[in-house]
Amino acid sequence: MRNTSLHRVLVDYGYAAAATGNAVLIARIRRGRSAHLVRVPFSIAVPEECAEQAASYAALHALLDALRSFGHRIATVLVPDSELLEDLREHRALPYRLHRAYIHLLCSLRATPTFALELGRAEDLAELARAELSRIAA
Question: Is 135 exposed, middle or buried (0-12, 13-18, 19+ CB in 10 A)?
Fold first, then answer.
């Protein structure tokens, strides 16, 4: 069921990625007093030395796509990675292997300019994502 709401939602999330490239994020979407959790699988394919940063980009990209697919048009997304926010704000130089993930994320952000990004932490959701990834791998 699509939620074509023009009301702002507040979204926080946590994610986990395995060395195999499989990854999952758990997001909490709040609107008013109600909240629900969603699970969004995604994947990364970069060398190990870039994996953490690539996972951060890919997680946010997957979340933004999921929010749009759920019909959310206005959102404040609490991003758990301050480095990612700095990369986006300052357009810092990145290793070549991260260019694709970064460009995909920028395109996703430009597709929905009504999504605002702010720094926030959701360690409980990161723990859920790690548990989910462990369960899948078992």
Answer: exposed
